[in-house]
Amino acid sequence: MLQQLANGVFSGSIYALFAIGFTLVFGILRHLNLAHAAIFTTGAFLGIEIATRTGIPFWALLPVVAGIGAVAGVVLERIAFRPLAGRDDEHFAGLISSVAFGGVLIALIQARYGTEPKSFPYEYFPNRLFEVAGLRVTLTQLVTLGLALALMLGLAWLVSATPLGRAMRAVAENPTAARVVGVNVDRVTAGTYALSSGLGTVAGALLALNIGQTDRGLGASIELIGFAVIILGGLGSLWGAMAAGIVLGLAEALTIHYFDSTWKGLVPFALLFAVLILRPRGLFGHIKVREV
Amino acid sequence: MSEPILSVESLSVSYGRVEAVRDVSFSVPEGGMVALVGANGAGKSSVLAAVSGLMRPGKGTVRLDGRDITRWPAHRRVGAGLVLVPEGRQILGTLTVAENLALGAHRRRAQAVPAGELYELFPVLAERRDLPAGALSGGEQQMLAIARAMISRPRVVLMDEPSMGLAPKMVDEVFGVIDKIRASDVTVVLVEQNARRALRTADTGHVLETGAIAHSGPASELLKDPKVVQAYLGVE
Ligand SMILES: Nc1ncnc2c1ncn2[C@@H]1O[C@H](COP(=O)(O)OP(=O)(O)O)[C@@H](O)[C@H]1O
Ligand SMILES: [Mg+2]
């Protein structure tokens, strides 16, 4: 039972890491970026390819993956969102064009890596097992949880306490007012996508590291629960995404414990609907990115 | 006379097919003050939007120190010292007063007025610096909008109806601040519904009528021009 809860926290931290990147873009720019899952998958493949080819250690791998992810995010915004700015159907059109961008990414992944799963090199990451108070946790899980928490807290700090974060909150509240005070809105928009996609690729690489491998369906497998996390936490709320990620991870783990894994897909969504009936704006719906 | 610090040549601004500003030209010498007056919808805010870079004009040229800045993005103009105090204040209500001021300063960090000095000029803001700006009263928000522009030590300030919607006492305070800004040799373009008061403060006035300049001249003469008085100033 406790073991299941611990596992729930670990997977929940990955859900949360997936979700904060998505919710950040929504909170600042009101964009629903449906290419986020494909960005996540890209991160997993990039991590494996770079680890395999170069053998660089894990601590150096993640910044490289994040950097490539950030560039991909900037390109994504330029191609799928910026050309639509100012259109009446800007938001709906962006939704569709981001789906298309995600489709292109997945097709490129398939062209480059084929359809077979890819694995990290044997023993790329030390396969160590700890026993703490009767719980068995792997080093990978601990590192994942620690990194996920650090990245999420780091993002919350960036948004609330740095000049870039201040500019992001200004754009979130009122883009015209932000321009009046001299904020370069295009640059802040690009920066928001860079952060979001950088976090998304790192989340993908971390999940692949935990599973040991990836295939092109990795993002699709986490996408639904990731969106459930975002809705549960309140769209645009960073703290909400973090808390809801852990909550849904736990809910999933408890489902497996009390029922069996065939129910694992159902209970988190049942929980989502139950919460939304009671609190239509999500657990933290009143706390938006700009108020972090 | 030396070259004007700001000049607007044959400016036209459109919203779709509606031409809101037609062939407007004026200039301001360094340290001078121009008042743009006219009825609601005459195109005053649209002129300021094109000068500040919030809108691309359909035609015409905007020059700062003789340099063509017509295609510059808004943030670059702020960096060059051309700032707008926009209509309706446009303060960022979810950010604190201090954050609003920090945003105002961030493009011109080297020139910026130290926050402490600014708070001496605007004591109400000092008391409220850590509150969300949305919690301020309308008059305080207007003061913040002006302070947010002045903290960057601008060379040219464009003000769009800074007294709009304020109680008479606050209006006096706002014009008091405008007098101080003038005294500090900052160039001012003032758009006001309170045309008489604006013309009393300015050197030069331009009256806009449905997008075009209908009367121009020294402010003191416009104040006496019977056509202007009848149409825009009314009997006192
Ligand atoms: N966003 C807009 N879209 C369409 N028309 C506009 C917009 N803003 C202003 N206008 C039109 O442009 C004209 C000038 O408006 P404006 O510049 O705001 O005048 P003023 O500031 O003198 O009241 C008006 O006819 C107004 O209806
Ligand atoms: Mg106006």
TrEMBL record, chain B:
Pfam assignment, any one: ABC_tran
Gene Ontology BP, a term: L-amino acid transport
GO MF terms held by the record: ATP binding; ATP hydrolysis activity; branched-chain amino acid transmembrane transporter activity
Keywords: Amino-acid transport, ATP-binding, Nucleotide-binding, Transport
Record-linked SMART domains: AAA
Coiled-coil segments on the chain, per record: none
Domain ABC transporter positions: 6-235
Protein family according to the UniProt entry: Belongs to the ABC transporter superfamily.
Protein name (record): ABC transporter ATP-binding protein
